[in-house]
């Protein structure tokens, strides 16, 4: 009970800090330096980019209640019309899950760095709630959800930040059409990056495990989406392609994680549907199964285990040894077992 009360106090304090930050942004009267080249504000709707930027004097100092770090998770649109995306290269972890119609959606998790902008931002899914339980009171930025799902989101142990709740943190970009043009200013939700200690995922980083097989290209298919990871020896990274096209950010940077995990999970029907009547898949991330870890140009067949939602995920070799990831960005793709 004491831990529950502490989490509640911490969440309220973080929300208050975010509101103070927004108030400081309003009063600052600056002209918003450091705006990325893309996306640019189109002047439509209630979300604008020409708002004043935060100055150090207007950023609240963390209180004792906010000492426990919290990640920022952002739901990212991943259909063709949403690309190129913004700010994904700054994420510590990128999760890819299946949504309606066999398409894919991303969740980018930020702890060590907050980019100037992230997006396009899209709606949340029920699976996100289970996945995010591994973090302590995470902030979830998303553009909304089905009406029947919102009470579950509002009751979950997270800080839900939608455009309706934090309008000054969002804006519409000019380079894409609705609904693929909603972007987030992370610094208007969190005063600073919480740091690596907030990544309570159970992941470990270090030397590669023994064994494995040489693997320079791996493709993961969803019913209506395709991811390909190609090893670049010169960059020591896996170059990402989506649906057969090299994937770059809006700043022209190629997405290139250090470690890629293909995690085979149960994908079942949920109680929710989209406006066309398509069922929303539920990706089950608690349990155990097999996975493939790609790092350093090699592939490792491993096991994964997550005993309960509040746990991180353990990855082990067939003999039970812990699997280390390469230092850098990690992509986790939830493929149907």
From TrEMBL:
InterPro entries: DUF3048_C, DUF3048_N, YerB-like_sf. Residues 28-69 are annotated as: Disordered. Residues 63-194, 220-332 form the DUF3048 domain. Keywords: Signal. Residues 48-61 have a biased composition (Polar residues). Residues 1-27 form the signal peptide. This is DUF3048 domain-containing protein.
